[in-house]
Amino acid sequence: MLFCLAVVAGAFCSCQPLRRPPKPNAHSHRPDPMIDHITRSTPLVLLLACASAGADPPPVMFRGNPEHTGVSTARFFSGQGGVKWQLRTDGAVRSSPAVTDTRVFVGSGDGGLYALDRTDGRVVWRFDAGGAVDASPAVANGIVVAATLEGRIFAVEESSGGIRWSLQTGAALPVNTSPAGGWDLWASSPVIVGSTVVIGAPDGGVYSLDLATGKQHWRTQTNGRVRATPSVHDGTVVVGSWGGRVYALDLSTGAERWVHRTEGDTLDSKKFGFDRRAVQSSAAIVNGSVYVGSRDGAIYALDEATGKRRWRVSHRGSWVIGSPAVHAGKVFVGSSAVRRTAGRADGRTGGRADGRTGGSGSR
Predict the structure, then answer these.
(1) Quick one: CA torsion of 116, 117, 118, 121, rounded to 10 degrees?
(2) Which pTM value belongs to this model?
(3) CB within 8 A of 143, min separation 6: which ones?
(4) Tell me, what's the pLDDT at 347?
């Protein structure tokens, strides 16, 4: 089965690759696992990035910055240019591309990490990772870091694809309910801060590694698989686990600063027949608040310093696994339900800011 990566010319100029939320099920409140989406040869549209000036460009990574704000200041193109090129791989492309001035780096379910020529889509090199590369790559200092769904974290040379280092993490922790509770489609993606890589793993660990060598600085255990991408701000790492908890860790040591237990932490997914615990959404950190979604059907706002809940907006059972974007005091997030595929919440109170119905807020 073939899957493809497509570039649309003149669509949007952004250096922040974004991840799609699951396709909703129109006939049920149960989240749909996107089976139709991932078993067809569906193009993944790459929104080309604008080249930025400067001798030392910042790292290119999932959602553009360590705080994962989901906001770009790049300009829109006028008009629509159509498909410029596309590349077909032999697996599902769930990785968000990382785009530099000359290259596009993207993973595939066929086990390959690809480096493509940004101009024409030509394969410059392909690294065989030995498993589905469902994490979004990060690029910094001539190094590309990525991970497989099975828990291999690795780094290769940006120019050649030659291996720099590799770490195989431990055995994956159990899913919250089976078989309907799996739907384990995305790996945690690396976030780069200075010379440090922070990433989650299916063994429940959050890892801090040296960018150049892969040497482990620290590892902190959580209570579930870590499929969210860690967010980092002001020396604090924030990440959710499949156990229904959000962790704040010290960037230097990995020590816990606080742990927030979502309502999903109290739910037995087996009673629902599908997962109601996992925090797969990658948090956004803005102005002292942490915004993160959960499979318990809600988006949360937490105090960045203490982890205390500021508000919770329910999507009435629909998964919120998309990563929030925060701008001008508003929080934008999608869910898996048809009637509430997107919404805006006031960043201070959680009240609906778009006039739509369906969500309900609580403290």
Answers:
(1) -70
(2) 0.82
(3) 155, 156, 157, 158, 164, 211, 212
(4) 54
- DSSP assignment of 251-274, as one string? TTT--EEEEEE-GGGG--HHHHTS
Least confident of 62-66, 106-110, 133-137, 320-324: 320-324
Question: What does the pLDDT look like over 195-231, one tens digit per residue?
Answer: 999 999 999 999 999 999 999 999 999 999 999 999 9
Q: What's the rounded Cα separation, in Å, for the pair 192 and 60?
A: 9
Contact status, residue 303 vs residue 310, Cβ threshold 8 Å: yes
What confidence tens digit (pLDDT) does each residue in 14-49 have? 343 333 333 334 333 444 433 333 333 334 433 333
Residue 117 confidence class, pLDDT cut points 50, 70, 90: very high
Phi-psi region of 226 (alpha: psi -120 to 50; beta: other; left: phi over 0): beta
Q: How many folded domains does the chain comprise?
A: 1
For 283, the token pair is 């948090």
**CA-to-CA distance for 91 and 227, rounded, in angstroms?**
20
**CATH for 94:** 2.130.10.10
Residue 189 phi/psi, 5-degree rounding, is -105, 150
Three-class SS state of 338? helix
Q: What is the pLDDT of residue 348?
A: 60
CB atoms within 10 A of CB 214: 18
Q: How far apart are CA 236 and CA 29, in angstroms?
A: 35
Give the containing element (helix H, strand E) for 220: strand 216-221
User: First and final CA of the chain: distance in angstroms?
Assistant: 47
